[in-house]
Amino acid sequence: MTVAVTVDPETLADALAPVSTLVDECKIHAEADGLEIAAVDPANVAMVDMTLDASACAHYDADGTTLGVNLDRLEDVLGMADSGDMVKIELNEETRKLDIRIGGLAYTLALIDPDSIRQEPDIPDLDLPATLVCEGSEISRALTAADLVSDHVQMAASPNGELVIGADGDTDDVEVTLDDDDLLSATVSDNVESLFSLDYLKSIEKPIDKDADVSLLVGQEMPVKLRYSIADGDCSVVHMVAPRIQSEG
Amino acid sequence: MTVAVTVDPETLADALAPVSTLVDECKIHAEADGLEIAAVDPANVAMVDMTLDASACAHYDADGTTLGVNLDRLEDVLGMADSGDMVKIELNEETRKLDIRIGGLAYTLALIDPDSIRQEPDIPDLDLPATLVCEGSEISRALTAADLVSDHVQMAASPNGELVIGADGDTDDVEVTLDDDDLLSATVSDNVESLFSLDYLKSIEKPIDKDADVSLLVGQEMPVKLRYSIADGDCSVVHMVAPRIQSEG
Amino acid sequence: MTVAVTVDPETLADALAPVSTLVDECKIHAEADGLEIAAVDPANVAMVDMTLDASACAHYDADGTTLGVNLDRLEDVLGMADSGDMVKIELNEETRKLDIRIGGLAYTLALIDPDSIRQEPDIPDLDLPATLVCEGSEISRALTAADLVSDHVQMAASPNGELVIGADGDTDDVEVTLDDDDLLSATVSDNVESLFSLDYLKSIEKPIDKDADVSLLVGQEMPVKLRYSIADGDCSVVHMVAPRIQSEG
Fold first, then answer.
1. How far apart are CA C40 and CA C49, in angstroms?
2. N or C: which end of chain B has fewer CB within 10 A?
């Protein structure tokens, strides 16, 4: 029942952002080797799996405790840090609350019963035939373009190493083609195409750094996976978004 | 029926802004020597006449085609350009849609039946006795001042070369006097004064560059004309705003 | 009945901001040695007493006239100044209006009957046992922290020279401790603690410069006073906020 972590508040905030963009509350597993969070949005469309290595922290001591946390509140407290401040988080075993200290600021964060939090998803280990890597800015731009005409977005990859992200609107269509020049790498074994709700992809994309290397794993009417790391590789994020059936598009 | 234009998206956006501030849809005449738009707001108070010379474009090929365009959508697409991108616009004669390309982005813009768009105004060739030239920032400031007290604004010019822009509120009044020091030139043959709805002048002023040279042509209870050019003179804009009767002021 | 003042509009705006954050209208006393305003918010919770010395003005001539002023309007007019402009304010004895000139802008501000304005408060001369001085940024940060969990904020000072600003929420608590390192000075004769509505303190704090030296005078279930000066000391501001009874907290 020990949780004692000292970390750059910005690192922790960056690690939480991919989770809080999908859910308000989550279970944080404070394992011996780092923090782990898995969560799925209320509609069961978009999932996240985030791990923050103990090595990203100035001090880390935990032994496998699960904390039910209101992410908005925790993020608000982290937002109180001035540049250069470290945040010190300790589980008070008596009060069952988190004692959070940032400089002269002491915040007592009440925890939520983990059993009252939506069950964690199990992100399946899919065999997706296309893996494409690009900068976050390319995804951001393509989703912004799709958003001009529709609530849905197609992602199509072809063995020639192109990724086409597009949308069909009532009157207008848009397509963004990412090729050799735009992609950092492309491994595509088959022509594949899937359709997604734009809102979920936009939520997931929002916290991604514009210059982060993002891996997109696409299949034929299959979920899409997005993978990227932050905090110099000490934090890894995997997202999965369920597809829409094409005929509904 | 050819329209094929390659142009800096910022230049095109700047040329459309004086139109889109008044109307959502317009007819773009793609003439052999450039693009022309004339439009009047739904209340028939404020008009615009804009021409963008072919010479402002990297490539220009047109033979007198009229395109019915939703300006919001076109501006949204232009907004997708990164700095340095060129936009390539082509009329697809089969689909009767505009194919717009910016880097790897391909947007298909459905056109509107030109007959369904409000008839274009004919900006009359008025003989206005006062012509005053100042920077856009001076007009902006005077309209902001007038807006503090009223929905209407007077413009008065006198042969001594002064332009007074002012407003009478219920309790407070305000006057901004532009003289020799503020005006770049003044040619006034008579004392004249006209009253205008502030909203229309504010809409027209909004897209004007603060350091653009703007000509104001004022008469006695007559419409006001504003003239300025953008894109190094390759784009000229003329606005006309109908006066309010003074007794309504 | 003379009021003729020429002053940097930013100085005057800074001097009015601590008043306009509490009330929309006030009486400005144009005394021989400067401008004085006292005001209390409509709920009688927060007061302000502001004096702007004649020496802060490029020109100052007044003989004890009371002006009823709509602060929003006066601040809007001051906001029209470009950097470097001076504002010239003169009472027109005939019209009983203020003639305000900023460059080529002439604004006529109607005055309000002073008798129609809420009576001025008399800020009591309390003997408060704790006086603590810190930068505005420290108060801002502490109030922001308190705002995360509650509508109320405690201020507690102890003879060891610490000031603790904190709040108890329904589930979470927060405390910001300012000690030697954070306080510019501390004179505390007794342990004292008082509770305040956060909204009033936030309103008062908003116009304070982040690097202003602010004196906080705290007592035991007593009002709090805040004192600071602006305009290189030519303008002094005193605020007082009534306490909440602790049991209501």
1. 9
2. N
Q: Residue A249's CB: how many other CB atoms inside 10 A? A: 14
Q: Inspect the interface and report whether the beta carbons of B145 and C107 lie closer than 8 Å.
A: yes
The verdict on domain C130-248 having CATH code 3.40.50.1820 is no
A3-115 folds as: Proliferating Cell Nuclear Antigen (3.70.10)
Cα-atom radius of gyration of chain A, to the nearest Å? Answer: 19
* Shortest Cα distance, chain A CAs vs residue C163, angstroms: 11
Give me the phi and psi of A225, to 5 degrees please: -115, 140
Residue B47 in 3-state DSSP?
strand
Chain centre to alpha carbon of residue A49? 7
pLDDT at C247 over 90: no
Phi and psi torsions of A123, nearest 5°? -70, 115
Tens digits of residue pLDDT in A54-102: 999 999 999 999 999 999 999 999 999 998 999 999 999 999 999 999 9
At B205, is the secondary structure helix, strand, or coil?
A: helix
Handedness of CA C97, C100, C105, C110 (dihedral sign): negative
pLDDT at B91: 98
Q: How far is CA B50 from CA B154, B157, C187, in A?
A: 26, 26, 70
What is the spatial order of strands in the sheet that A87-92 belongs to?
A: A59-62, A3-7, A87-92, A97-102, A105-110, C173-178, C162-168, C152-158, C192-197
* CA–CA dist B53, B236 (Å, integer): 9
DSSP string, B66-91: EEEEEHHHHHHHHTTPPTT--EEEEE
pLDDT tens track for B83-98: 899 999 999 999 999 9
Domain spans, chain B: 3-116, 130-248
Is the domain spanning B3-116 CATH 3.70.10.10? The answer is yes
Token pair listed for A232: 């110099």
What six digits make up the tokens of B147? 């807006």
CA distance C15 to C229: 9
Mutate to test the interface with B, among C71, C76, C78, C95 (most CBs of B within 10 A): C76
The residue written with tokens 């603060």 in the block is B210
Is the separation of the CB atoms in B132 and B157 below 8 Å?
yes
- Region C204-232: mean pLDDT is 97
Of A148, A146, A171, A153, nearest in space to B97 by CA: A171
ipTM: 0.92
Residue B153 neighbours by CB under 8 Å, 6+ apart: B142, B143, B146, B165, B166, B167, B195, B196, B198, B201
- The answer to whether the CB atoms of C148 and A77 lie below 8 A apart is yes
Q: Which chains touch B (3 or more CB pairs under 8 A)?
A: A, C
Q: Which one of B150, B163, B172, B175 would you mutate to disrupt binding with C, by most C Cβ within 10 Å of its Cβ?
A: B172
Q: Give the pLDDT score at B73.
A: 97
**Is it true that B3-116 and B130-248 share their CATH fold?**
yes
In SS3 terms, chain C reads as CCEEEEECHHHHHHHHHHHHCCCCEEEEEEECCEEEEEEECCCCCEEEEEEEEHHHCCEEEECCEEEEEEHHHHHHHHCCCCCCCCEEEEEECCCCEEEEEECCEEEEEECECHHHCCCCCCCCCCCCCEEEEEEHHHHHHHHHHHHCCCCEEEEEEECCCEEEEEEECCCCEEEEEECCCCCCEEEECCCEEEEEEHHHHHHHHCCCCCCCEEEEEECCCCCEEEEEEEHHHCEEEEEEECCECHHHC
